[in-house]
Amino acid sequence: MGELRLVSLRCLRICPSMSSLDLCSGTASGDWHEAQLLLSRDETLQVASTQCMAAVLVHSPVKYAAAFIHADIPEFLFERLSCASEALLRAAYSCLLLLTEERLFFSKCHAVYGIEALVRSLKGILQLNSPELLKQGLMLFTEILKRQPEEIQLFTNSATCRDASGVLREAVSNPVLEVVAEAVRAVAAFFRKHHLSSPPVPYGELQALVQALLDRCADLSPPVSQRPLPSCGLLLPGGHPPNRGPSRAVLQQRDILWGALEGFQNACRLAIEFRNEPSAWENPFTAPSTEKEDTLETFSEFLLSACDSLCIPTVMRHSEQATQPALMEIFLSVLSSLFIIVPHMKEKFSKKLASSSFIRLSLELKARFCCGQSHLALNQACSSFLCSLCLNLFSALEETRPPPREGLSIVSSILQHSLAQVNTRGSESLALLSDSLYVDEAARQRQYCLLLLLYLAYIHEDRFMPEAELFSAVRSLLLSVQDQGERPPPVIFRAALYLLAICQDKAEPLEKAPLSAIRKILEGISDLRLVYSHHPCTLKFFLMYPDLLSRFGHCMLELWLSWEDGGSPEGEDRASAASARPAALADHGDPLLPILKSGSSVLLILLDLVYSSPMDIARKVLTILKTFLKENEDIQVGSLLRGHFLQILQQLLVESGAAPLQASSNLPLLLSLLFLVQPKNETQRELDSTDLKLLHQVSNLCGKCSLDHVEMLLSSFNFLYWSLHQTTPGSRKRAVAVLLSSTPLLTLLQKTLGLTWMEPAPASALLGPPTKETALLCSGWLLTASLSAQQHLGGLEVHQTLTVELDKVLHTLAFRKKKAALFSASILRFLRTALEQNFSSALVMLVSSDSGQSPSPEDSALSPLSLQQVLFLVVSLQNLLVQKDLLLSQAVVGCLEALVDFLQARSPDVARHVAAQPWNRFLLFTLLDAGDNSFLSPEILRLMTLFVRFRSSSVLSQDDIGYVLQETAKVNFSELSMATLQALSCFLLQVQSTGSLSNPALSMTIRTLGETLSERSLAPPRRQDLVCLGGVAVSFSHIRD
Known about the structure:
This is Meiosis inhibitor protein 1 isoform X7. This protein has about 1050 residues and is mainly alpha-helical.
């Protein structure tokens, strides 16, 4: 037996020599002997036999491969892949690799038969430390994956397919670069539809394989240049490679990256192909109640995410050192395919690419490699990518615009016809735009194409051209268009205007000729929304040139406001309105505010917009002007706006007749604006003729309104009240005379006050009227109190008297809930005015209901009040004071002081009784319970002064006064408010004048405190007296003093 083995070996060694001499016949008997040797249990014979066949196939594959295949030699070879001998495996791999060159190998399904054995073999080799053997096995696997016919399914069961994916995933992670290079080629071949189309598609395995592929590429260190390379752009290196060629490791890394990109490209192509097959969208074997993760959609979204986080950074990192045109061609093709794979994310992905300078990258690739007829494939890939990218970006812009959206088709046509010819560098691109000679149609289309690319790049903050030079180039383009009598499409003109606006700060102002060209083109466009770009620079551009401002300022401001808070700058989604401005402008507030400071024309346009624009825009204008006036309290601005407002109001009243609100629904907002422009800090401003005319017009307007026009009446009442309290006594008298002459105003005021005691709905019986109606009532009572006080003071003629039922006023004060503090304070100020006038006002008549009984002597003395009403009012005032609301407390104390003065004049006994009630002491200590030194509150000091005045020792004893004086002496007066100091001075004077203290030490304390106070100026506090509380104009001094 040993001799036979020796003879067989010698014969096998002779076989390669015979094959080189063409002495092997390739007969069936020879193939049978080869098969017998492969089936033998002698490993040496198997190795020798396999090597013999390989040598024969190398010599003449066409002649001998078919014979071996017909003899089923591949089956025997695949069977041998399960052995542990590296020599036999190496020989079998070599022989099978040679046999794969024969198509018959696949048509007779030998690959299908042996794929499972091959995968098992590779899995076993991965456990060994044999890179060469693994590389050889992967080469065989790659060839089978590449050459397997589409009509013959390679993987007949999903388990083998998953095992193959796992083998490739491990091979890609191998530390040996040669193995990795072969593995990535196998992965690229594995990602083919006919290998993976049988359900269920193993999306999870494919995702893991792509992840491993990209992770391995990310681990590769980028090549290091031998010497610095001069750069021709901001992204791509230029110059020539160093004299010494790249190292072997660098070449291997380049091959791996190239292969990985091909693999990723094939994975993307696979996802695109499966989109057309509903059966491949999801795993049909997933339970209905289980969340479906292994689907085409999740795989597609993974590809996008992997490209964003791994593929793009890796390719760009390697390209920084050496840019390969073929590699970039694949890379850009991958990016283009992702727009198709995940269509619902294409706009967001496009914006990210644009903001990452991919428009610039593509243009620089075209300029560097694609001039003339060179690198046509790269030029096509760049152009296709740019076209898809720009159309996605522009489509996102168009979605935010009203129909018709014709710009997209124009942009698509320009890009498709001209992108391939745009291969210019930066300076050449500017020269192309600036060409002022006669420009033919093709050249003009290239100019438009370049303009669109720059427009979309600059929208996404990729400003790669010198802005001053770009400004000049766009300017020249517009002049050229005008000289040739052309009319550019609106979308092209929009791009030109945007670039001019963005670059304006870095360039000189436009001359008359380009401004004329811009104006002429704009006048030919029916809807300026077609050329409007929402960006602060665009707004500033139109408002800085008087020619453009006078003709288009109104429309541009309206467009700007219609987009604000409901839109966003070019390139942003309208849904993200809160971030309505690019990052570079996010911290600069509303760009209109600095523009408003520069001139009055924009202010007047904004005022017109409040009157003529839709309600939402008018409200935005109101907000802007409110902010502006708060930051710039300039009386000249207020006067300018009041004069313009008077013109608008006069025109409105003339045109609308008796129904002004039907003519303009924005009238309440306009009146709110009029109230806003009133000076806030000038209490002694003389009213001019414009102010008096406005008072007359607003009072007439109020007379034409019904009580349903709550907003307009509230704004009107606020304006009238504010006008009375911000002027000098002389002007105030003239203003009151104007208002008293308006009978319709007084009639409306009577109806407004009557709303106070209308029966509310049962559910809100204690809450009072709704917020706006409550504000109107507050303003009505305050205005009535002011008119009554000034009429009584000046003895002005009254044409109509207001009637108020006194018992209803008192009832309202007693049963109004705590929340309505301002409401109660307003009524208290009215009642205080009536008490101060001794109920003798010619304007307001307070009447009491007839009880049917003859009044008592006390009631007759207190008329129109009764003793019962006085006591009822005192209890109400005490209850309101316990609420400890500052404004309400001021109103209560003022009203209580006026009541006691009224009672002192009418019935001193009743006045002393009111001041000496024991309940007052409990009330006082309740108020003092607020904290340390709470007695230094101006309202409490005024209350104690009142009790001292009437010598109410049961309320405030000598010991109490002494304690207050001792504690006051410890206080640092510089920390007290001016109102507190004034109230304290009055308290000390009252204590001295009444002789309430018998203790000499306390008397000395009073004198010392008095001297300290006299050294301090007790001038009125310098603070804003007029404020707006809950929509109601309120004068603190009117409530307090």
